[in-house]
Automatic annotation (TrEMBL):
<dbReference type="InterPro" id="IPR006016">
    <property type="entry name" value="UspA"/>
</dbReference>
<dbReference type="InterPro" id="IPR006015">
    <property type="entry name" value="Universal_stress_UspA"/>
</dbReference>
<comment type="similarity">
    <text>Belongs to the universal stress protein A family.</text>
</comment>
<dbReference type="Pfam" id="PF00582">
    <property type="entry name" value="Usp"/>
</dbReference>
<protein>
    <submittedName>
        <fullName>Nucleotide-binding universal stress UspA family protein</fullName>
    </submittedName>
</protein>
<feature type="domain" description="UspA">
    <location>
        <begin position="1"/>
        <end position="147"/>
    </location>
</feature>
Amino acid sequence: MKHILLPTDFSDNSWNAVKYAIQLFKDETCTFHLLNTYTPVIYNVEYVLGYPAQFGLGDAIRNTSQENLNEMVEKISKTFDKNPKHKFTTLSRFDTLISGIKEFLTETETYLIVMGTKGATGAKEVLFGSNTVHTFREIKCPVLAIPSDFEYEKPQEILFPTDLEVDYNTFQIDVLKQIAAHHNSRINALHVSTGKDLTFNQVNNQIKLETQFKGTSYLFHHYDSMNVTQAIDRFQIRAKINLLAMINNKHSFFENLFFRSTLNQIGFHLKVPFLVIPKK
C-alpha cells in the first residue's frame, strides 16, 4: 500500500496533478490523500490566540474547504473508472501548506507527494510557483511537480542529470527505480563535464549508479563542458523526455539551478513532470 499525498487548492493546476497521479499509479495499490490547507485571508491576533469558533469565520472556511474536497472526490469518480486498488481520503487543515504537509508526514509514511505547478508564467517565465519551490526546499519526501498544461504520458524516457558527487544510497531513489520498473522506462543519466576529468569518487559513484538501476533500461550520457540548463535543454530537443528527475543535494547544481535569486534567468522551460529526490 503506497500512501500518496495530493495537496490541492482546487485550481486547474492541482486537478491536473491529481489526474496524473491516478494514471501513473493505476496498476498499483494506493491510498491518495487529498490535502487542502487554508488560512483566513484576514485574521487578527485574537483570532490566532483565541478560538476561531468565537468569530464564526473558522467554521465557514473549514466547511467550504471540506465541501470542495468532497466535490473533488466526486469529480474523480466521474472522470475515472472505479479502481479497486485505489482509495481516497480527504484532509482539511487550518494551516500553511508546508506546515500542513510536515504534520501529515509525521502521521503517515508517505511514498510520494504529487502537486501541480504553474510553470512558466508572464514576462519573468518563472519555472515554478513559490509553493512548489518551498516544498522542494522544506520537505524531506520525494516531490513530483506536474506542469499545469501537461497531458499524461507514460514516463517511457526519464532524464536524470547528475554531477556524480553524491552517495546515491543516502537518497530516496527507490521511487524513481520503481516508477521506471512499473512503466518499463529508460533511465537516461546525464553528466555535464566541468572541463576536468572525473575524480576517483565520481568514477565510483558512476559505477554505483549503474548498479542501482540494474535490471532497468539504463543509459549514461556525458556532455562536454556546458551549462547544466543548456544540457537539459539540448537533451530535450534530441530526445522525447516524459519525466525529469534530480537529486536535491544542497551542494550540487540543483541548489544553484532552482534556489538562486536569478531564477527568472533560467534558459530552459520545463514542460514535463519533475521529480525531486531528497535525502533519506
